[in-house]
Amino acid sequence: MAIDVKVPTLGESITEATLGQWLRQPGDAVGADEPVASLETDKVAVEVNAPAAGVMGDQLVKEGDNVEVGAVIARIEPGAPVLSDAAGGVEGRAPALAETVPVNPKGAGENIEVRDEAAAGGDEEEPHLTLSPAVRRVVLEHHLDPSKIRGTGKDGRLTKDDVLAVAKAQKAAASAPAAPAPATPAPARAPVGERHDERVRMTRLRQTVARRLKEAQNTAAMLTTFNDVDMTAVMEARNRYKDLFEKKHGIRLGFMSFFIKAAVLALRDVPAVNGSIDGEEIVYRDYVDVSVAVSAPQGLVVPVIRDAQALGFAEIEKTIADFGARARDGTLTLEEMQGGTFTISNGGVFGSLLSTPIINPPQSAVLGMHRIEERPVARDGQVVIRPMMYLALSYDHRLIDGREAVTFLVRIKEALEDPTRLLIDL
């Protein structure tokens, strides 16, 4: 008897997701608790595991469809997969099909259809093979001809892994030294009529980011104020103690821990920046949960460092390193990205000189860090070169006055230019 594969519970207040990709195709053997599909929620990707071992049966939804929690999306049939003889049946002909068929010359944004021109019985209906959206995207991205790739999926279908393997092999071959080729004339410029557009559905994460950012612009009275900070003292302290720090704590000493500790001091002095508006009330907090923006393959995610006011430098650095690694692996949980009271975004790692970050509702402020750049500044009547960084604080003017915003940035600046303040709580 077939066993239903259902959408698991996705987290508090999340009732639906989008089926991002099928990881197993009908006829594939699956083990108990083995991932068979990937779901995209508002914040993270979640894998759906097989409830029991068996054979992948019917898939009841398509990639890109929205599904609700508890919905049945596929069925697992008991038993082992049946492999047909290579001389008969569709399964036996599928590999040859993938090798010998020409590509139907459609636009790059449409489904790519291939035919088996060598099929016996010319009057019979020719079988067709359609690439899934995920496979089509990879084919287009790497400019590959799917008719020259052997498919390993059911009925010889191309899988994403098939395409990526060929792309990797071609890249390796291209990087190998080769004999100089004879000079050839430059190819003629392609006419305008041969250009193609590709339409790709926005992921649920990107849709949520777009909606929330627009909501922040429409709701908050958002304003940004700037300051700059001389990073000389922080860089000297980091260079002086980074080896001892790593030897003792097993983690590198970075700049983010300095900024978080400085933000904790500044938020204590200017509590409105750590507050939020709830209806006609203002919520003030005696704790600091810092949301730290980190880059992930599916987009920017913002995990939360809880109770940052109680953490030391090493605990902060270890937490950030763990978040970064799990963001790249896609294993962050929804709970880890909810409930922050203040956000720090470091655009400097990407080379940003200056920006105006957008607040993350219901928070009321976000601090933007930028790249460190040597610039001439005046010190004691002399022009000297210093490693400078621009800081930007975007804030909700409904709650935070300009005086408070400027005071907050000044507190950050003072703590970073004299890191001793972080130790003696000034």
Your description of this structure?
The chain is of the alpha+beta class and 426 residues long. The chain has three domains: 3-77, OB fold (Dihydrolipoamide Acetyltransferase, E2P) (Beta Barrel); 89-172, no CATH class; 206-424, Chloramphenicol acetyltransferase-like domain (Chloramphenicol Acetyltransferase), CATH 3.30.559.10. The protein has nine helices and 21 strands. The chain has helices at residues 89-100, 133-142, 160-175, 204-219, 232-249, 256-269, 313-329, 402-417, 420-424; strands spanning 3-6, 16-22, 29-30, 35-40, 45-49, 54-59, 66-68, 72-77, 113-115, 128-130, 222-230, 276-278, 281-283, 290-292, 294-296, 299-301, 304-305, 342-346, 365-369, 373-379, 382-396.
Entry summary:
By secondary structure, the protein is α+β, with helices and mostly antiparallel strands. Helix content is 29%, strand content 24%. Strands 11, 14, 17, 18, 19, 20 and 21 form a 7-stranded mixed β-sheet that branches.
Average predicted local confidence, pLDDT: 81
Helix content: 25-40%
H/E element order: EEEEEEEEHEEHHHEHHEEEEEEHEEEEHH
* Helix vs. strand class: alpha+beta
Share of β-strand residues: 15-25%
Assign the CATH superfamily of the largest domain.
Chloramphenicol acetyltransferase-like domain
* Separation of the first and last Cα atoms: 69 Å
The count of domains is 3
Largest sheet: 7 strands, mixed
As residue ranges, the low-confidence spans are 83-128
CATH class category name of the largest domain: Alpha Beta
Number of strands: 21
Assembly type: single chain
Provide a count of the helices: 9
CATH hierarchy: architecture of the largest domain: 2-Layer Sandwich
CATH topology of the largest domain: Chloramphenicol Acetyltransferase
| Rg (CA only) | 28 Å
Shape: globular
